[in-house]
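Page 42, continued from yesterday. The earlier attempt failed because a stray header line got pasted into the input along with the sequence. Redoing it now with the clean sequence only.
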Amino acid sequence: MKETKKKLEELGEEVVKDINSGKNPDIDIPVRSLSNVIYDEKTQMLTLGDKISKRIFFNVAHAKPFMQTLLVAAFCKELVGEGVHTSLRDLYYALKRTLPNSNENTFDEQSESDPLIVDLEVTLDILREQLHLGADVRGRAVGNVIIKDRGDTIDWSKLGSGGWAIPSNVEDVEIKNVDADYIIVIEKNAAFERLHEDRFWQKNKCVLITTQGQAARGVRRTIQRLSDEFNLPVYVFADSDPYGWYIYSVIKYGSISLAHVSDRLGTPKAKYLGLTMTDIERFDLKNFTIKAKDVDIKRAQEMLKYDWFKHPKWKNELEIMLEKKYKAELEALSGKGLKFVTETYLPDKIKNKDFLP
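This time it went through. C-alpha cells are written below.
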C-alpha cells in the first residue's frame, strides 16, 4: 500500500515539477496495442514492448484525457490513503460532474474512465487491485481448498452447489491448504455445474474453477497462485471454437490488452483439455456441431497469425475449423449421455495426457 501511494504521489509531483519549471506537462504511457505486444517464447508470456505515447496537457487532443488521468490518479490516492476499496462503476460516478462555467463533463461514459485505470497500471507498474479498485465478481471454485479471506476461514468443499465466488481482488486472500492433484478451469458455467453435481472434484482429487466466459482478472490470478504456490497442473476445458481457444490462451499466455501484467495473471504451464476439432471426429459429435459464423471464421484467421498459436497442433485445429466451417460447444458432449463427460471423456483425456500445448 505504501509503494502504491508513493508511485501515485511521484506521478503528481512530476506534473507539478513541469508546471513550476514552465514546461508543458506530459505523462509517458506505454502503448497497449498489438503493435507493441511481444510473445516471449522463453517465458511463454505476452509482454509489452518499449513503445511510449505522451499525453500532453497543452494539446487539443490530449487535454481532456490528461485531466481525466489525473482525476483518476487523485481518486485512487484517496482510496489507498483511506484504506477503502470501490468498484470501477463507483469511480466513474464519483468523478462524473460538469466543469464550472461550461457544458463539459469530466466523464460522459464509463468507457472513458475504465481505460485510464489500465493506463495508470501500466505507467506505474502496479495492479488495478493495488489501486483499491475491483470489478464485478465473476467465477466460482470448488475443491479441497481452505483459504482465509478478511479474517474468515473458508472451505471450498463445504459451500453447497454454489462454490466459492472468486472476488476481483485476491491479493490478500491467504491460501492455507490445497489437497488436489490438478486444476480444471472450465469456460462454461453449465459444464461446471455438471462436474460439480457429479462430484468430479471429489472423485478425482482436483479443483474446479469456472471462468463463466473470458476469465476475469481475479480468476486468472487465483489460477496462477494455486498453480505456482502448490505446483499444480492446470487444464483448461473450453468450447471447440476460436473464442474458447482464445480464453485458454489468455489464461496461459496473458492477453493483448493486459500484456503488462502477464507475469501476474498468466499461467504458462496450463494445457488445453477442452473440446477440439479432432475430438468431434473421434467421438462422433458431428450431429452436435454448429455452423461457424463469419465472425468465427475471421477470428480463426486472425489467430493463425499470432505467434503463440503457431504450434503445429494448434495450426491444425484452426485449419480444420476453417475447412469444415463448424464449431462445437462443451454441451455437445451431453449428446453421448449426461455422465459421459465426467465418467469417460475427462478421465480418459487426463489419463492419456491428451492435451494441446
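Notes: The chain has a mean pLDDT of 93.
Reminder to self: strip header lines before submitting.
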